[in-house]
């Protein structure tokens, strides 16, 4: 039997599903490990009322790897209008995930595996833990905040982040389930990003057994560096600054390879009112990356659309596959 290369993607937000979708039809075994620290929008409301892991990032990952028809996926993604007071803002998929979790006695991991089967997923989707997590941040001014949406809205420079279980009555430590750790340890390639450094990527790595596994795995760890900085959080950051933050949180240089976009972003193209979380293109510090032991792959990974700057999914996926076959085959 031919061994399919195993890629594990870790993150959340909008960047993760984009790359997942690009990998779906490739000859690889894809696993998405998805953050459960989101507390905004529909996810946050359901989390508070149903006491369930926030489903939004999981929903988007399911859609990215599903082989259902476009119509079926549109229904799953449909979000009720704000005029529908009772269901305002909720995506149907969020309600389905929450309902299945309740049917499974609160076991979100089992619920997502059941839904993966129903939605004809090519690959695997694992919530990073089976309980809701709260993201905490300490800012450079010494103040602290709890909650992803609060931290993002503060637009302040973050010193460090950590996670705590949301239902922390017994002060236990959050831990990933065995399948998550096994996937990381068995992978040929671990991919972090693209996504918010402090609120999409680090919440997963701050779970002790996840961070430990990512540092110990024999897989190549690839970081897809953001194209634009995030207002308040990574203002004036270089690509090396992003990696420095990741390494400092795990207390070792664990990033092997960094994908860096070097295609300039036209100054007059970005609509900063529409994309109000971003501020400027990420600066380059290739020597800084090399000093941390990183292999640097710099290329044109830029895709301009809707007056915003995004990663070109196909180019990123092609580079990930090049790395995979170049390193392991």
TrEMBL record:
<dbReference type="InterPro" id="IPR038136">
    <property type="entry name" value="CofD-like_dom_sf"/>
</dbReference>
<keyword id="KW-0963">Cytoplasm</keyword>
<comment type="function">
    <text>Required for morphogenesis under gluconeogenic growth conditions.</text>
</comment>
<comment type="similarity">
    <text>Belongs to the gluconeogenesis factor family.</text>
</comment>
<dbReference type="GO" id="GO:0005737">
    <property type="term" value="C:cytoplasm"/>
</dbReference>
<protein>
    <recommendedName>
        <fullName>Putative gluconeogenesis factor</fullName>
    </recommendedName>
</protein>
<dbReference type="InterPro" id="IPR002882">
    <property type="entry name" value="CofD"/>
</dbReference>
<dbReference type="Pfam" id="PF01933">
    <property type="entry name" value="CofD"/>
</dbReference>
<dbReference type="GO" id="GO:0008360">
    <property type="term" value="P:regulation of cell shape"/>
</dbReference>
<dbReference type="InterPro" id="IPR010119">
    <property type="entry name" value="Gluconeogen_factor"/>
</dbReference>
<dbReference type="GO" id="GO:0043743">
    <property type="term" value="F:LPPG:FO 2-phospho-L-lactate transferase activity"/>
</dbReference>
